[in-house]
Amino acid sequence: MTVKRRRTTEEGHNVDVLILNQGSLIGFRPLSDAAKQWFAQNVDSESWQWAGNVLGVDHRFAPDLITGLEDAGLIVERVQLMRRRRTTEEIRESKRKLAEEVEAIKRDIRRDMLAAWRDGRMERVFEEWAKEDAERTKPSPKH
């Protein structure tokens, strides 16, 4: 038997409603009996607006709903579900790191090819590559 633990705030208060921010759609999940009762009495919704126990609301109407919940003394907790967009600087840094990795791989390949050429193994290397290419491009058998 599992015991459900109540979600609490940092101050130790039980959360009544979880607000899930998904960008243009805001989800409201009543957790407590008081919150469920408040929704039943104060929110006019259709069954298609509910996904399980979460009410989906257009982001333009969410602030009024949050105000109503808080005015009723219910404790709400906001959860951001959308991934934060990367800044231009973060994107540049990511591209720089990727370019460094590509250059390191190229250096390793050149080093390995030069060593193989010096040792007289280059012909074998080309034969192995040709075999690998042939395996990769071989059509799969039809059933």
In short:
The chain has helices at residues 33-42, 62-71, 88-118, 122-137, and strands at residues 17-21, 25-30, 50-51, 54-58, 76-80. The chain is α+β, with helices and mostly antiparallel strands.
Task: Please give a structural write-up.
By secondary structure, the chain is of the alpha+beta class. The protein folds into two domains: 17-80; 88-137. It is built from four helices and five strands. The protein has helices spanning 33-42, 62-71, 88-118, 122-137, and strands at residues 17-21, 25-30, 50-51, 54-58, 76-80. It has a five-stranded mixed sheet with strand order 3-4-2-1-5. Strand 3 and strand 4 form a beta hairpin. The longest helix has 31 residues, at 88-118. The protein is elongated and about 85 Å long. The two termini are 49 Å apart. The model has no long low-confidence stretch (mean pLDDT 83).
Search tags:
143 residues, elongated, five-stranded mixed sheet, 4 helices, 47% helix, alpha+beta, single chain
